[in-house]
Structure formats: C-alpha cells, structure tokens
Amino acid sequence: MSEREEEELESGAESSSGEASSSGEAQGLARSHGATEDAEEKKGSKSEGSEDEGERLRAERKLYTIVGSLLFTLIVLMLNYLSFRHFERYDWTRDTRFTLSERSTEVLEGLDRDVQLVLFFSSGEPELEDVLELVQQYESASDRITVRQVDPLRQPAEVQQLAQRYDVDLAQTRDGQTVTDAAAIVIAGDRRWKITRDDLTELDLSGMETGAGPSISNEAESTFTSAILRVVSGEETKLCVASGHGEWGVGEGERNLIALRDELERENFAIETFDATGLRRLPEACAAVLVLGPLRPWAEDEVKVITDFVDEGGRVLLALDPLVDRRGVTPTGFERALGGYGVLLDGAIFFEPAPERMLQPDPTSMVLVESRPHPITETIVAMQAPTLVDLAQTVRVEGARATTLLDGSPASFGKVDLAALMAGPSGELAPDDLPGPIGVGAAVDLADPDAMADEAEAAGRMVVVGDSGWLANESLGRPDVANLMLAMSTVGWLAEREELVAIPSRESSMQALALTEDDMGGIWIRVMLLLPGAFLLLGFAVWWSRRE
C-alpha cells in the first residue's frame, strides 16, 4: 500500500473517531439536557404538591379553629345554663354577712303562698345596697318571694298609688320630693306588714367606752323574716298575761314591758291581760300564760289553776323575782308546786363573783349568765351570747323532766344569809349557802320521750326564770346580750311557734377610712405604674415564649 493510501486511511479513522466523539458528546449533552428537564419537571411538580399540601394544612387549621371556637362557645353556654339552673353562693365573710340564717331558710322553704317585698328606697340611699343584697337572697331561696323596688324620687306617681293601696304615709320635703314612713312592705294576699328604717338597723354606742368605736346592729334579716311570718301565719296566737299581784304590764301600767309587747305583736301574737286575783279559771284559747314578776305572793288556789293548766297540756312562763324583805326571801307561792316538776326555788339570791360576768361591782345586780343546750337556746349557745339578769333568785333542777336553761359561772352560788349579804357582799361561801355552779332558769317538758309526735306536742311545757328584769325594756334593747333572742325563743317554744327562734343580728363597724398623701401616692404608684408594668412583663414573656 502506498504512503498516500495509508495517510488517507489514518485521516479517515481520525475523522470517524472525531465524529464518534462528537456524536457521543452530542448524545451526552442531550441526555444531560433531558435529565435537567426531568429534574425541573419533577421539581415543579414537587413545588406544586408542596403548595397544595400547605393550602390543605391551612384549611385544616382554619377548620380546627372554627370548630374549636364553636365548641368553646358551646361549653361556655352550657356552663352558664348549668350555673343558672344550679345556682350556688359561697360566703367567706367572717360574720357570714351574705348568708341567710337557718331559721330564715326554714321559713322560706315552708311558704305555701306568694309573698311580695316592696322596697321604698331611692338610688342614692346608703342602705339600699345592703337591703337589696338581703332581699335577693330571699328571692333566690324561694320561688314564692318576689322583690320590687320603687324609687320615691324618680317614681312619685307609683309611690302614691302604692301608698293609697297599702296605707303608707307620705310627706313632702321642702324641695317637693316625696318621702314615705315605710322602708318596705311585705305583702301576702290581703295581708301586709310595714317595715320602717328604724326596724332595719340600730346604732350601738356601747363599744365607745372601751375604745372599740360605734357599730351598727343589722336587724334587717330578723325584721323581714318576722314580717313574712306575720303575713302568712293567718290567725294571731293568743298570749294571756297575768295581773293582780303587781306583775309587769304588757302595754299598760307603770311597770310596762313595751319592748316585749312590740316584739310579740310583730310576731303575730295577740296579748290579753287577765286578773289573777282569786283566779278560778284562765281565759279561753290561751296558747301560753305569762306570769311576769309578781311583787306579792300568789295564793295556793291561784297557783293550782296554773299547774292544772300545765298538766292538761298548757304552756306557762314564770318570771319570778325574789321577794326580799328584812327577814329574807319571801316565798312567791309557786315553790311547792314547782317542786313536783323537778324545779327547786330555794329562796336564795343568785351570787356571781366572777369579774368577767359582772357589769357592776355588786355581784347580785346586772350580771351575765350562760345558756345551756336546749331547743330554746340553740341559736344562743351557738353564738355564745350571754343573758343579762338583775337580782335573781336561784333555780335548780332535779329529775328528768326539768332542764337547766341559764347557768352561772363555776364560782357562782346561792346566797341564803341575806343579813351578811346586806352588810356587805362577799365572795366567800357561807355554810348555809348553796354551792355552785348554780342556775337561774329552767325548762320543763312533760312529753313522754316514747310517745307519738301528736301526744308529745299536746304535753305541757313550762319555763321558770328566777328574775323578770331580763325582760325589761333596757335589757331587750341591748345588742350585746341575748335577752331579746331568749324572750322570743321562749315564747315560740311555749306556743309551738319554733320558727320564732331568734335570728342573730349582724354587727358592722363604723370606723372611717383615713388616707394620707403618702397613702394616696402609694395607691397611684400601684395602680398607674406597677399594675400596667406587670401586664407588660406578662405580655413580653408570652411573646418571647412564642418566638422561641
């Protein structure tokens, strides 16, 4: 082969190799371009899938938010409905200011007719808030109670209409405003009872002597509950009060228990006075007989009428002061008869030497005694409230039918030697004296514990107290003792009106709030700086936690 032919073959091989290389490169570029296009297509499809997934997630979040909001709203509505249907209040105040007493609750639960409470209070009166809070408790406790407030200043025409209908007295002030003599009216059917502002509160200045300051005794609950009882109880309960031996009069005479009469009439009692001199029989339909502090002894025949009444199921209150003369304590005439019931009148003066029980240096005058457990004294014992007596004789009990109601301290005793007592009170126990602790009051219940309920209610009852001064107007008006509660509870137990067991009053301090400039500055710093700063810090903490 010639050299020329060899060169042509070599150049042809090179050319073929170049073409093959070019073709391979072209194919590689084509494959690379195709792969790139595939990757871009995959990337685009993946991006489109990610966008669809994000939209789906956002839609789900919106749906969850809407559903969660609806569920939350539904839960709130259900809780509000349940709280409305099952309303419950919690009173954490020291004196349970916003809770009705057990007796008021029992009265409201026993209502068999509708009762309306109409309040004549203007919006600016300071007592309005407390009175509204109280009557709303009554309304919440019973479906039978409705409350209506009428403003004499803004609704004079309506006030005049109600005044004409319910016999409320109206008056015009100098500036032409209408005022009423009633703070409220309690209405049940055609029966009504008027409540004045003086019935709701009472100013107590007794603490001024010890530096405790004045206080307000809130009698509103007792007043409203008593008024409700009066308008729903129907016929009045008759009490027969004895006279003829120098007894206290109830509304009449010099020795007059006006405060007791007013309270009894408020509780729907009718009082009838009878002459017990030469007594042969008692007036008809007496729910209870009251013998209050006779100054002269009763005759044996007169006493027998009283004891026969008790034996036949009658009820009697005997408040028997010691009849003291130069020879000692004169018998009242009831000593022998009461001994048959387990009540002993020994003719001894109650002597209380304990300093914490004495309101005066004299250990026989103005002393405090303690109540013992009994249905009459249930509320008083729970309150640990004392009862004030004045020159009382001792009352002891023996047997199962009599129970001590009022008792002295462990240091108390009965003073028999009156000559030594008149010469000068001494805390030493003489040989003839009665050792203590000794009582001044007792209750007798003739019911058989094993008898049926009807038979037990028909049995006789009697309360004997060796003093009548505990019923005096001054004693019943003192808010620091339980005399009024004891009086009403005693009459209620005797007349089977146990709902009249006294409702304790609420004491409110009248101490003024005095703020200095430094105090005002401290309040400004707390309200304007510290409180907003605390919210800012809380907001920053929430933001920082979400940021992380």
CATH class categorisation of the largest domain: Alpha Beta
Sketch the major β-sheet. 9 strands, mixed
The structure class reads: alpha+beta
Q: How many structural units, i.e. domains?
A: 3
Approximate helicity band: 40-55%
What integer value in Å does the Rg equal? 44 Å
Number of helices: 15
Straight-line distance between termini: 86 Å
What do we call the CATH topology of the largest domain? Answer: Rossmann fold
Report strand order across the widest sheet. Answer: 10-9-11-12-22-21-19-16-17
Query: What is the name of the CATH superfamily of the largest domain?
Result: Class I glutamine amidotransferase (GATase) domain
Question: Kindly state the mean pLDDT as a whole number?
Answer: 80
Number of strands: 23
Instruction: List the uncertain runs.
Output: 203-217, 507-512
Query: In the CATH hierarchy, what is the architecture of the largest domain at level 2?
Result: 3-Layer(aba) Sandwich
What general outline do the C-alpha atoms trace?
elongated
Strand content: 15-25%
